[in-house]
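User: Fold this; tokens only.

Assistant: Input:
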Amino acid sequence: MGTRQGQTPYTYDFAKEYLKQQMQNPAFKQSFLNEKARLDIEYQLEELKQDIAVCKPANELIGKIDQIERFIQQV
């Protein structure tokens, strides 16, 4: 059983069970998935910015842009 620093196994299990219960609510589930997608896109864009800042090759940058586009189409 994995726990994060500062969490007891009980806290982790409780949070996991609570999330599982909340995901049964369609409105919560949709909001949760929307926020997760937003954060995933934000992270990918930040990585892309860093790659541009260090002048990575154009083909790598285009590859990352293609990945972001595919991700957006899936969500």
